[in-house]
From TrEMBL:
Belongs to the WD repeat STRAP family. The keyword Kinase applies. InterPro entries: WD40/YVTN_repeat-like_dom_sf (IPR015943), WD40_PAC1 (IPR020472), WD40_repeat_CS (IPR019775), WD40_repeat_dom_sf (IPR036322), WD40_rpt (IPR001680). Coiled coil: none annotated. This is Serine-threonine kinase receptor-associated protein. One of its GO terms (cellular component) is SMN complex. GO terms for molecular function: kinase activity; RNA binding. It comes from Seminavis robusta. Keywords: Kinase, mRNA processing, mRNA splicing, Receptor, Repeat, Transferase, WD repeat. SMART domains: WD40. The keyword Transferase applies. One of its GO terms (biological process) is spliceosomal snRNP assembly. WD repeats lie at residues 63-104, 104-145, 171-195, 291-328.
Length: 328
């Protein structure tokens, strides 16, 4: 029987954002309150992370300087700094306004993930070394000190690669790793003794964590951690350390890919091993939409802060912006 293709609800033509020449690795939106503007940054294997307008997709600038694939990119909440993690064994922090590299933090292996604390004082990184590194941005700015202030192995016994890290608070860091576990690390700014064990652990079915996103739901809905691993998407309520939902997907996340939860918590988007970007109902896991447009597997997806659109990045080197409500 011939393949009739995906069923679509409100079929739409996305905004296509060209510019990259290799597979995408990560996308992140940032709403800059002072300017009432949304920005979108992208990490790519072509070594050239980019920043765009988060609504129109128009190119703003490129951060040039890495010598290896860029796996992670994060804007701080003010939109003034951008951090990138690369296969060239470094993390760089850039002036997001001028594109100038401010600091380069050396590592000893491929760096896969980086994230700012909410108060913007520290930076965490992780990757193939299996070590969490914490950098003090105030020391870097004032004293030019680029050495980490903390180094914490995921496991003292075995090497466990770190795929994603995300600060939950200014002192609690979450790491998603190759053993399928999400670890909670308590790392206060003034702590003299580094933790040797996580304070809590959340578990998937054991597949490597491929993507991890933190969403603070409105109306005291709690903080939801979205995790893509193996062929499933998991949703954890962080305050209670409780698994809310786990849904088996029609795709897998063994190479790249990910999932993103709508800011109001009603639906989520997932993309991975095929060409389609799918939207699902959060409460039931039922597929709501299936959008085709990319010419390569989906490598990353993210909702915009206002939830009006979501971005997908593909192995085809393009970013596409899709409307949450195609009828609008």
């Amino acid at each position: 029987m011939a393949d009739k293709g995906p069923n679509t609800k409100g079929r739409q033509i996305p905004i296509v954002c060209p510019g990259h020449t290799r597979p995408l690795a990560e996308l992140q939106f940032c709403h800059v309150k002072e300017e009432n503007r949304t920005l979108l940054v992208s990490a790519c294997h072509d070594k050239m992370p980019m920043m765009r307008d988060g609504t129109s997709g128009d190119w703003i600038g490129t951060f040039a300087g890495h010598k290896g694939a860029v796996w992670s990119c994060q804007l701080d909440s003010s939109g003034s700094l951008c951090a990138t993690a690369s296969g060239d064994f470094s993390v760089q922090v850039w002036d997001a306004i001028t594109g100038q590299s401010l600091w380069q933090f050396p590592h000893k292996h491929i760096v896969k993930t980086v994230d700012f604390t909410p108060n913007l004082k520290r930076l965490a990184s992780g990757g193939h070394e299996g070590i969490v590194r914490i950098f003090d941005l105030q020391q870097a700015a004032q004293q030019k000190k680029l050495d980490p202030v903390a180094e914490i192995p995921q496991s003292p016994a075995t090497k466990i690669l770190i795929a994603k890290c995300k600060w939950w608070t200014d002192s609690i860091l979450l790491t998603g790793s190759s053993d399928g576990k999400i670890r909670f690390w308590d790392i206060p700014e003034q702590q003299q003794t580094l933790p040797t064990e996580p304070t809590d652990i959340l578990e998937t079915d054991g597949a490597e964590v491929r993507d991890m996103e933190l969403t603070k739901l409105p109306n005291n809905g709690g903080d939801i951690l979205t995790v893509a691993a193996g062929d499933k998407v998991y949703f954890f309520q962080l305050q209670e350390k409780k698994l809310l939902h786990v849904y088996k997907m029609p795709i897998h996340f063994r190479e790249e890919g990910g999932a993103t939860l709508h800011p109001d918590g009603t639906r989520f988007v997932a993309g991975g091993s095929d060409l389609w970007v799918r939207v699902f109902d959060f409460a039931t896991g039922n597929e709501l939409e299936c959008n085709k447009g990319h010419h390569g597997p989906i490598r990353c997806v993210r909702y915009s802060p206002d939830g009006k659109l979501y971005a997908s990045g593909s192995e085809d080197g393009t970013i596409r912006l899709w409307k949450t409500d195609p009828e609008e």
